[in-house]
Amino acid sequence: MSEVAQKPDDYQNVFKSFKTHKSTVCNALDYLNSSETANFCFVKIEDCNAEYSCGFTECWCPTKRNLEEEDHEKRKLVYYGEVFEIELLKSFLEGKETLDSLGYGRIKALEKLSDFLCDSNLQETSKILAKPLGKDLKEAKWASLVATHIFSKLAVTSDMTISDMGYQIRYDQCPCGCLAPLRVGDTSIGNENVWHGSVDILMGHVAGITRAEESVGENTEEDDSSFETNPGNLEFGRDQLIAKCVVFSCVQNIQGYKLGLAPTIVISKDRVKVYMYDPKSDMLYESTELPLFSPYVKKLNTITIVALWLAVNYAIFGTGVQPAHQEFGYTADFKDRINNMEKNEIYKTELQIGGCKQVRRLKPNHRGGFGTSFIKN
Prior knowledge:
There is one protein chain. By secondary structure, the chain is of the alpha+beta class. A hairpin with a 2-residue loop joins β8 (201-203) and β9 (206-210). 32% of the residues lie in helices and 17% in strands. It has twelve helices and 16 strands. It has one domain (11-373).
């Protein structure tokens, strides 16, 4: 798998094309680096059933955000520039960095974003993704649309698989009619002796989870996605989202991933959220929910698109956990919640990708008695 794909034929064409979007991207980067409603917080796991053999649908892990602490000194916000190379990107846009100094991976990523933001492409993609709003939609269809028209269009890597689990209908081509081919297969992660199951999309060092649902009512210009004022529609099933994020990050690090933090991106029909966990420092990050579309119009929100672009290319633009964040000390305490040392060791060395789908079986659950695991993840 290559994060860098192929060197663009003409660096100057990339530069000229991206300059067209300079103002849009600079404004988005500035917003992500300073906004009170587009940022990350730290998350602490207060309890969990991670030492039990549980499919993701059975996972539970009550948590506390650092912004919920009574001690105001613990309520630190994390801006996008603290976990992504935003300053480097701004230096390039301002002419302080050359294309050669960025390296092939960043150049290819810039080329992808430039193509996405092209007026005709942005309008067409907005139209495709807005069409399901207000309508019932199969989960498999939404996963296919997101994979084809967001992930593959923004990511440098082409290594992408959509889950073959839990769907009566599966697509080997994009269902919008563009006929883009899709690879469907085993996207399970974990270990059958602990937390395990499938994510909707696997793409290099990024996991995708899709929700074919939307918020009640339309977004407005006063839409506030901050944690404290509007947790949003992606709060539902948050335990399972965090469990998938933790397992995915652990398995990435077991397989030699160097940055520690590995994003799990959650996309509903109108909202976006990013989780990241680093098992070495035990730091768990959760972003605010960002609107997929701009207020009042069914056009993709360019700030959210830039945030997604950064996240799907985290292996290229990510900084890893900053020393200041480790010194801040608001750790997830994940492995402290696992009393069984053998199970703790599984999360360090024995998680895998593939071969650990959630299966239907009757077994003891975390509260005594018996529970059932279902095929659908």
